[in-house]
Amino acid sequence: MSTVTELDPSDFTFTRRTWIDADPVDVYGLVSDVAGISRWSPNASDVAFDEGSGPEAGAWFSGRNRRDGKEWTTRSQVVKAEPGAVFAFVVDGIVEWSWTFQAHDRGTAAEQSWRLLRMDPVLGGTRADVEALRDYMAASAETTLTALADWVTRNPLARRAPRQD
């Protein structure tokens, strides 16, 4: 039986998509304001940039996460911050979360991706553990995307006037 450190991280990735009734720049603004993620994510809370930092490449932030009755704090670093296009960050040097935004049908096609950068015992001890974590995070991403799209629909002042195509 392989140990988790012998597994290939590229086997454990996913991307989920949704359409959001807002301009890509506005959706980017919501997602890159990491303090707001707890509005949509079922797992994250108390997320905040380090003092003096913001949504720019190289910036650091911390957040509390929860799963299966456990809570822990993570440290993340923004690796891409292109307004209206992409916002990505690496969590504890283990996983990269990325969001991409493209104009589509007077709104935004938003994608949220999860990619393991390296295997680590914190992910679990077996392939089945890591697969279960990936599947859990994929379901969480779907929940987050749906909640974000619904929140934007219920809070029209959170977005600017529609684009002129």
Estimated structural class: alpha+beta
Spans of at least 5 consecutive residues whose pLDDT stays below 50 are 161-165
Specify the number of helices. 2
Describe the sheet with the most strands.
Answer: 7 strands, antiparallel
Distance between the termini: 56 Å
Organism: Lentzea sokolovensis
Protein name: SRPBCC family protein
InterPro entries: Polyketide_cyclase/dehydratase, START-like_dom_sf
Describe this structure in words.
With 165 residues, the protein is an alpha+beta fold. The chain is built from 2 helices and 7 strands, in the order βαββββββα. The chain has helices at residues 24-32, 127-154, and strands spanning 13-20, 44-49, 60-67, 70-82, 86-91, 95-104, 107-116. A 7-stranded antiparallel β-sheet has the order 1-7-6-5-4-3-2, with helices on one face. Strand 3 and strand 4 (70-82) form a beta hairpin. The longest helix is centred in the last third of the chain and has 28 residues, at 127-154.
